[in-house]
Amino acid sequence: MGNTGRVLIAADKFKGSLTAAQVAEEVAAGIREVRPETGITALPVADGGDGTVAAAVAGGFTPHRVEVTGPLGSPVTARYALRGDTAVVEMAQSSGLMQLPPDTFAPLTATTYGTGELILAALDAGARTVVLGVGGSATTDGGAGMLAALGARLLGTDGRPVPLGGGPLATLATADLSGLDGRLAETRVVLAGDVDNPLTGPKGAAPVYAPQKGATADDVQMLDAALGHYVTVLARALGPRARELSHAPGAGAAGGVGYAALLALHAVFRPGIEVFLDLLGFPAALAGADLVVTGEGSLDEQTLHGKAPAGVAGAARAAGKPVVAVCGRLALSAESLRAAGIQRAYPLTDLEPDPAVCIAHAAPLLRRAARQLAENHL
């Protein structure tokens, strides 16, 4: 290609060490050390999980801070991003594992109430399209907390609101969604995630994901039953669509927030990386590139199922652009990489075998990896 090639850096965060913007910065610096004439465009990307708002801000959205109810019920500071009348709301900011104290989980009582408050804040700021990124949640409440914050009345047999969390949904007696904020009827909601599980059953939100949020086997059974009861009560109030949507792809995303969004907010479910590539102007940036660099902290089997690098590589391959990747660790074969559209990966563990050192010194190691990449591909 020679040293006048044009490179598009479209990588996700390295979780626990570098944001997507920092990844792009270090890769660009490493490339320039070897090929100073290279034209570089940085486009930090995300797939709906934690880091999504940061990627949107790096892509030109304006950050807004708001105090909301955290997953444990205490106040937390969360951010959303706004550009024109489009808001990016990252569930992890309000109801995510990132908002829990270290080694603390609340699988039965963690709530999505703050996610509803974050959506309200975006509506107050003029948003009429809300992109709801649903990765990294600490909750399995079927989105009940979110709906309550948005104006739904979810009542127990005593006529009082059921306590927050997934476990208490077992005591739900009636549901009234007529009080939902009226602006939602005029708002387009896009559910952006990489989870296509149903709400309940063996592949549902509780059996598949609640153990990652601290749930025991008994908790999982209790949560799955509570979510099933929640669907029954909502179907009584809203008709058979409530039951049908519990089986829809994405209903089980983020502990069931997907279900609530599909049912009550009339959301459209799309793979998160596709949504954000469109929002951030990836197609136009791709058109001007000779080489695409993507990546994330770990390139593994999960990467192939809707994660950002796979989305970037797929779009680049469709446009006939070569793709290489950087990562903290690599757990994919060369064949799997090629099948995903990635020519070669440059893991930091090739430079430093100790994972703890890789995390602590990710920036200089990534710059070294980028120098290698530039020498081999530019």
Give the overall shape, derived from the CA principal axes: elongated
* Cα-based radius of gyration, to the nearest Å: 21 Å
Termini gap:
5 Å
Write down the CATH class of the largest domain: Alpha Beta
Label the structural class: alpha/beta
Count of DSSP strands: 13
Q: What pattern of helices and strands is seen along the backbone?
A: EHEHEEEHHEHEEEHHHHEHHEHEHEHH
Count of helical segments? 15
Major beta-sheet overview: 6 strands, mixed
Tags for this model:
single chain, 378 residues, alpha/beta, Glycerate kinase, domain 2, 2 domains, six-stranded mixed sheet, five-stranded parallel sheet, 37% helix, 20% strand, Glycerate_kinase, Glyc_kinase_flavodox-like_fold
Task: Give a structural overview.
- InterPro entries: Glyc_kinase_flavodox-like_fold (IPR018193), Glycerate_kinase (IPR004381), Glycerate_kinase_RE-like (IPR018197), Glycerate_kinase_sf (IPR036129).
- Keywords: Kinase, Transferase.
- The chain is α/β, with parallel strands linked by helices and 378 residues long.
- It has 2 domains: 131 residues, Rossmann fold, CATH 3.40.50; 222 residues, Glycerate kinase, domain 2.
- It is built from 15 helices and 13 strands.
- The strands form 3 sheets. A 6-stranded mixed β-sheet has the order 3-4-5-6-9-10, sandwiched between helices.
- Helix 12 links the parallel strand 11 and strand 12.
- Helix 1 crosses helix 15.
- The longest helix is centred in the middle third of the chain and has 22 residues.
